[in-house]
Amino acid sequence: MDRVQAMQVFLRVADSRSFVRAAETLGLPASSVTGIIKRLEKHLQIRLLHRSTRNLSLTPEGERYLERCREILDLIDDTESSLQGEGGRPQGRLRVDMPGGIAHAMIVSQLAQFQQRYPDIYLMIGTNDRQVDLIQEGVDCVIRTGHLHDSTLVARRLGELRWITCAARSYLDEKGVPERLEDLQRHRAVHYFSSTTRRGSELHFVENGERIAVAVPGTVAVNQTGLYIKLGLDGLGLIQLAETLVSDHLRTGALVEVLADMRPAPVPVSLVYPHHRFLSPAMRAFADWTAEVFSDAC
């Protein structure tokens, strides 16, 4: 029995709480994963997992073994990474995920620079405005906006995004430019909804230090940033989003900021990855490069 492989499989099963999901992320048949865990338990002469038709949980012995497995596998990764670092540039495959707007406006536009600096790193970039499950979906790291709530993940703050309220010139010519929050009663907005909340009718502002949410009527809601911007450009209503995502449209005058003195509070943006004591050189390289990109843009 390959004990290192068995530890890796056990770690993935424990994190995903599923033999099937662990098998999918490892690229192995589910029967192989089940067999590896059974042989591992036989070798250790202890039960690591409680199994039922609906649930998979760790035994007390499994919890202790999991903690030691993390330490051992992290040490192996760190040892191999240090040797790779001595031999040359960071390399390997890295799967990352981020909101579509950030990908298009900030990351993809700078990707040639990253490839020139790190030609041996193969990036797999996924774009989602929903929150992916890093463990179950086999993602190495994600860029997330807003305040984070998952304490099992490690977060590196990249900066803050300045949010603005804006609209197409054609829309403002028709509806007028709002100068007070009360003026929003005569306006409409393009609504945005996400997988975590369906409340998309509110626009947010800060007036005299107080955060205020204003419900603005609208006739359409979307859950994709690129489409949200397009509908704003088409004159369907006010939109509210990170300034950097529409900076080109603001410069050309296609979009015009309104209520600038009551901008929403800045939104934090972070690079998030599963808890590991050591990071691979490829992961460190991407994290440092992304921090540079946001430092220049924010």
Give the key terms.
298 residues, alpha/beta, D-Maltodextrin-Binding Protein, domain 2
Structural commentary:
By secondary structure, this protein is of the alpha/beta class. The protein has 3 domains: 3-85, Arc Repressor Mutant, subunit A (Orthogonal Bundle), CATH 1.10.10.10; 89-154 and 273-297, D-Maltodextrin-Binding Protein, domain 2 (3-Layer(aba) Sandwich); 163-265, D-Maltodextrin-Binding Protein, domain 2. It is 40% helix and 24% strand. It is built from 10 helices and 14 strands. The protein has helices at residues 3-16, 19-26, 30-44, 60-87, 100-107, 111-117, 169-175, 225-233, 247-252, 281-297, and strands at residues 49-51, 56-58, 92-98, 121-127, 141-145, 153-161, 163-168, 191-192, 202-207, 210-215, 221-222, 239-242, 255-258, 267-274. Strands 4-3-5-14-6 form a 5-stranded mixed β-sheet. Strands 12-7-13 form a 3-stranded antiparallel β-sheet. A two-stranded antiparallel sheet has the order 1-2. Strand 1 (49-51) and strand 2 (56-58) form a beta hairpin. Helix 1 packs across helix 2 (19-26), helix 1 (3-16) packs across helix 3 (30-44) and helix 2 packs across helix 3 (30-44). The protein is elongated, with a radius of gyration of 24 Å. The mean pLDDT is 87.
